[in-house]
Amino acid sequence: MTLGFSLSENVVDLAYVAAAIAFVIGIKALSSPRTARRGNMVAAVGMVIAIAFTLTLDEVDHYWFVAVGLAVGAAIGVTGARFVRMTAMPQMVALLNGLGGGAAALVATAEFDNVAGTDPDWNVLLAASLSVLIGSLTFSGSIIAFAKLQELLTGRPIVFPAQKPLNAALAAAAIGLGAWAWIDESMTALVLLIVVSLLLGALFVLPIGGADMPVVIALLNAFSGLSGVATGFVIQNNALIIGGALVGASGTLLSVLMGKAMNRSLANVLFGAFGQVQAGAGQARADDGRTVRSTTAADVAVQLAYARKVIVVPGYGLAVSQAQHDVRQLAQLLEEKGVDVVYAIHPVAGRMPGHMNVLLAEANVPYDQLKEMDRVNPEFPQADVALVIGANDVVNPAARSDAGSPIYGMPILDVDKAASIVVMKRSMATGFAGIDNELFLDEKTTMLFGNAKDSLLDLIGAVKEV
Predict the structure, then answer these.
(1) Which residue in the list 212, 326, 393, 416 is annotated as catalytic?
(2) Catalytic site residue 393?
(3) For 281-322, what is each residue's pLDDT tens digit?
(4) What span, in angstroms and rounded, lies between the C-alpha atoms of 413 and 374?
(5) Options 3.40.140.10, 3.40.50.410, 3.40.50.1220, 3.90.650.10; CATH of 297-465
(6) What count of Cα atoms within 13 Å lies in the side-chain half-sphere of residue 368?
């Protein structure tokens, strides 16, 4: 079945240029919460243009299969986007990365099978081998990332003896199999490459802790883009090459920026097994006379109601308890009493880049109240109360003062410089870095123990009575 008409390649390429411009504008707009929604729509329009004009090419047929694929994919995508909770957005992003890489690998495999033995250009086979390697690795790595985020697997690094040598051997085997498939046009080698790459992707992500998931998600996003670029060369589609290159470049840059935000190299993130339970170094000590002080919602409500400035520090605990609307309601009550309320956003708070921004935007928190770390840190000394909700490692002063701590040197939010600190937390459990938090022993700190949502509801009731 065909459409009955086709457009010239020049017209299609011109449409691809328009789609590429839409992609660039969309990515630029995604850099700010204020313009992110518009940017997403612009990029989506660009993708619709790219798909629509691709379907007019002469080599495209079997439109019934295409229509079924589009319908099934759209149904799954719309259902997922509408019904997935914002707290589960990191898991969804991980799955989307994996599906992108897996789709690229499948297309490259099918095209490799079609052209093998027909004396194809060497670059087509090379691109197919690269797409299969990167795409399969991205798929299995993303599935492991999803399992960690969904708590199907522990968020701690999973390590075992000789893990790094095994990964190195698998990487070498993958490269060797890719070369064999490319040179001999061997489908057997390509199938083995898929198996080895899937295993390598899983073992690659297993030793990475939950604290590093924002970096891992960004990196897997870059990998999915690179596999798309390779597949674009396989099927000679300019839109796929352009789109994949943009995803690969932006994902790589974001990975580097996320690593910089933690003052750690990308190699340390990938191979450092950050988050293993630490013994000795970097532990907060209570044997120096300091003790943890607990408080009540009523006492905290008085502090908040009579404060001039309150800085809210959201963390993953806020997301887990789905309390973003409650913290917004609390802030509105305080603002009605004349309190200045802002939100301090750490670059790696949560489990994906921009997680806290997305979460609070869903609760209609004004964009100008969301302040990144560099902007908000100078404001902590003027804050009467810093309200920490579910954050741990990103507010630990040991990052500045304890050279033996695994997070030493990581930029943190200067919560300890506020006049008073209230930490809302379920227990004294450590964060993903596996170390105790010196902030909890600070003489200015009080702990409001309990589920963040329940504690916020208690605070809302107590503030109303002040």
Answers:
(1) 393
(2) yes
(3) 444 444 455 688 899 999 999 999 999 999 999 988 888 888
(4) 9
(5) 3.40.50.1220
(6) 1
